[in-house]
Amino acid sequence: MIQKGFTLVELMVVIGILSVITLVISQPLANVIKYQRESQLNDNMRDNLQFVMNRMEKELKTSTDVTIDTTITPNKLIFTDQFGVSTGYSHSLNNDEILRTSSGNTTKLTENTVFKVTKLVFNERLYSLVDSKGLVTVSIEATSLNNKDKVSMQISVYPVN
Amino acid sequence: MKTKKGATLVGSLLAITILSTTLVSALNLQASISRSKFFLQYDNTANLLVAEGLEIVRFIHDKTKNTPPNPPNLTNITPGVYQLDYNTIDLTTGYNSTCLTTGVNSTCDLELDVNGRYQLSSNIGNKIFYRFVEINTSSTIPKVTSTVIVKNPRGGIEKKYQAIIQLY
Asked: Do B133 and B80 have their domain in common?
């Protein structure tokens, strides 16, 4: 009598092969899912930082009397904005955030529930010793909440006024 | 008639082809994601560094254009390709770069200092960011091209970011 169907050995072999294939393919697919989850968080951090940088650039470009207060650590950038209001940017070391102070009001430019700002450094490069207005450089370093992703961004602005 | 046992040659080949294609696709997908992830994380920084390159040249230009005796001249800006960082205040001497868009090298690489600032590197080694500006004065209005190249130290794949302004 001719037997139909698969033998137990054949089934075991097929299941074994399929398991190996699934294992091999599942790793890249798991990475894809993990990457998507992480990249969404990191994209938020980068976009947020770029927004802050663009805002600073825009504000500094039209500002006057830019000075860097190096008497405090971390240093603070103080300037007069286009409306004549004394404004400042500083780094809150306790909260890992960037703060903006204007007319006595302090607002957060970044949120430590999204990412942590680990460094905010201001630098002014004068063209010569007698120069009164120089190139202002702002450097920011931030890390994601899980400390896996680190971003460093930098802008240099020469105020037009 | 004797019953045939086992798989046919065509059947085996088909199975091997399908399995190989699946495996190659999965591995390609992972490699492609790794590549795009590398460049994606530096996209924003590279764009800001391109803009910074233009701003530094504009700063030097604005500081020197009204210098007597022949304003507006380009006293401290002469045509050429230069490496530069935020500390650069002169584009006539000392900063000439051998960097070209066809191949970056250690004369134009940037690195983070201890304060988290991007500046010209002080040591030799694989870097991620390379920047140079090209100043062209062939027309009456000087043209500045800022280029940043992000290079993956592992594998050497590059991505180029570029922007152009005219100096008035």
From this structure: yes
Asked if B102 reaches chain A (Cβ–Cβ under 8 Å), the answer is: no
Q: Report residue B108: phi and psi, to 5°.
A: -140, 25
Q: Do A125 and B26 touch (CB under 8 A)?
A: no
Domain co-membership, B149 together with B75: yes
pTM: 0.80
pLDDT tens column, A84-101: 999 999 999 888 999 999
Nearest CA among B144, B150, B133, B165 for reference residue B44 = B150
104-133 in B: which are within 8 Å (CB) of A? 112, 115-118
Domain membership of residue B28 (yes or no) is yes
> What ipTM does the predicted assembly reach?
0.79
Same domain, B103 and B91: yes
Tally of domains in chain B: 2
Nearest CA to CA, how far is B73 from chain A (Å)? 16
Task: Give the C-alpha separation, B64 to A133, whole Å.
Answer: 13
Q: Are residues B31 and B61 in the same domain?
A: no
Question: How close A50 gets to chain B, by Cα (Å)?
Answer: 7
For residue range A124-139, list pLDDT tens digits in order.
Answer: 988 877 777 889 999 9
